[in-house]
Amino acid sequence: MSADVVRVGLVGAGPWARNVHAPGLLAHPGTELAAVWARRPEAAAELGAPVVADFDALLGQVDAVAFAVPPAIQTELAIKAARAGKHVLLEKPIADTLTNAERLADAVAEAGVASIVVFIRRFAPEVVDWLADLDGTDGWAGGTARWLSGALLGGAYSSSAWRHEGGALADIGPHVFDLLDAALGRITDVVAAHRSEPDLWNFVLTHEDTRTSTATLSMRLPMRPTITEVSVYGEAGYRELTGRSTPAQDSYKTLLDEFTTMVHTGQTTHRADAHRGLHIQRILNTASKAAQRN
């Protein structure tokens, strides 16, 4: 392989690894899917790359590691990868607890490796354009978001134990909070939170510069297609982002474009890096505590 190609090892062989990570890494001209390691070797063997027996073997063959595993598993492995000098592609949330997210972000910073968290919507061109329009306009006062789906009722991800345990807050909450934060400025607090059945979460958030937003999430409502809406409003009017025009696979290609550039240039900061993941984890932690009080 060319020296310009980043050798990536993939950890995990579930639906997201099969549908996005593996095909994306195989197709991208700047990456080689050099090794796969997963709990089920037979599933790993279907991803189109050599299967290794353990994580240490994978680290010995790659420049970077992409993770497609639950957050509780990702933390320790990603810390080990960063300390071994491997660049990391992390899934959200980056850890199962705030303490572990802090440990992971610190390990990435201390190692000086590149990192990107797969906030996949941030790499879709319509989202990039929407955020650029907002950034170039003054007068926003607040916003709202709705993400309502039946993903835990059936389908590829419905058997995921960590998604059932954490619900919509853990799985789609990072995407929603990331988008609201990017649109309206840094989220500073969760002033109200409530969880009811079926996995229905409602939040009131405060942002810097006195802006506020609300969010409603669920993954157990029979919505087909999934409803995804983010909007902002204020003196400048109203701007809405609806639906998902760009397939995840196309957004992942853009993510890999940016990731490989980081690796080759030595860049270690990015709008979706591990420290961004830590910021979102802090919001998740605050939101969870606020919901438990109600």
Give structural notes.
With 294 residues, this protein is α/β, with parallel strands linked by helices. The chain folds into two domains: 138 residues, NAD(P)-binding Rossmann-like Domain (Rossmann fold), CATH 3.40.50; 121 residues, Dihydrodipicolinate Reductase, domain 2 (2-Layer Sandwich). It has a six-stranded mixed beta sheet. It has a five-stranded parallel beta sheet with strand order 2-1-3-4-5, sandwiched between helices. The mean pLDDT is 96.
Tally the structural domains: 2
Rg over alpha carbons = 19 Å
Low-confidence stretches: none
**N/C terminus separation:** 56 Å
Outline, from the CA principal axes? globular
CATH architecture of the largest domain: 3-Layer(aba) Sandwich
Which structural class matches the secondary elements?
A: alpha/beta
CATH class of the largest domain: Alpha Beta
